[in-house]
Amino acid sequence: MTPLVVYAFSPRIGDLDLYFKTARAFLAGATPNQDFRFEYPPYALLWFVPAAWVRHTQWEFIPLFGLQLAVMDGFIKWVLLTEGARKWGRAWRSVVPCLAYSVTSWMAALYYLKRYDLIPAALTMAALFALARRRETVAGLALSVGVVTKLYPVVLVPLALAVCWKRGTLGKLVVGLTLGVAPLLPLSAVWPWWGFASFHVDRGLQVESLGASLLWAAHHLGLVQGVLWIHAPAAFELHGAAAEGVRAVSRWLWVVGSLGMAAVGMWSVRRRLPERMEDLARLALGPLVAFIILNPVLSPQFLTWVMGAAALALLSGSRTAPVLILVAAVLSRGVFVGPSYKYGLGIPQTLLLLARNGMLFVAGYLLLRDAWRRVASEDAAPKASAALDYLPASVEAGCAEPAGIGLASQRR
Length: 412
Known about the structure:
Layout: H1 2-8, H2 16-27, H3 42-54, H4 58-88, H5 96-107, H6 109-112, H7 118-132, H8 136-150, H9 157-167, H10 170-181, H11 184-187, H12 196-201, E1 205-206, H13 210-220, E2 228-231, E3 236-239, H14 241-271, H15 277-293, H16 304-313, H17 320-331, H18 340-343, H19 347-389, H20 393-399, H21 403-411
Antiparallel strand pairs: 1-3, 2-3
Helix pairs in contact: 1-4, 2-3, 2-4, 3-4, 3-8, 4-5, 4-7, 5-16, 5-17, 7-8, 7-16, 8-10, 9-10, 9-14, 13-19, 14-15, 14-19, 15-16, 15-19, 16-17, 17-19
GO molecular function: hexosyltransferase activity
Protein name: DUF2029 domain-containing protein
Pfam families: GT87
């Protein structure tokens, strides 16, 4: 954790300049989305305000906000160590999830500790942690605060609803969800907080998205003409007729894919209830990865959303999908090496970006396959037990094992 803390307190600005200026404007009495544009959900500003209230200059704000992020990072690693110890005790394998997460976050420090995405990532981890321990009200509260902080955890709400419905504790989850969003009602009287949505509706095809990477590769091959690499207000985007077409298709794929993966997760829970946290994390990865890789807007910090769940998924089941996600998070940094990102990626970085997006896409497919197999294995079990119910009595008697054998097998 030490390298990350050092980087958190470094003077590198990233998006922290935007966080500081908006928080200071708010503290001075300005109204977001009325006196100045605020592109994030409303609770995001509340995370920026404490450090800006205590420190009045940008250079004082940076280390204090970095301390907030370091605390979130420490919480996620504590959860990973706790779950590893629950699974493996004091064996060396118990630290693998935390170690994998630590290495990935260190390699991704360029955006990991200079964006506020670590805060909703920690809230999502807290929601999964509480849900696994049957603290449904706390899980609902953490999930709803995460949604109003960064929006993306909304794709996990159907999964949480399905789990609590299956347990018979849906009411507790709804109470937590309601408590988390309740402040929005009085807030609406003084702040048009919903204005952030219009900003994102107007965004173009971000250069790192799956569709943009394929289009830019086609541009390099000379298959598509008129593709422009533009520095838009919030990110670098591809513009032109072809880019507009890809953007339109990407939006539909994004909505349908995210909802579809959420539906598959609910169906899986309906047939077989997950109890361990790593099982919940694996189911959560499905809609999260779909939300990221199919999105026409894909920033590198979005990988922060899935790093914790991917590390947890290493505890059981197939490791291929979580490893692909963690490697993709590491590869994201290579896209920014050199000055070409400002003017249009060269062939080496384009290939790297295609590899990163390909890994995420394959990981999403594998998670979908795992969820399907999880249900299929549950469907096969009742059939086997049903067949045993119809064995003739004489066969049942012949198959019965002596008492001593049964006791011996129980001891093993």
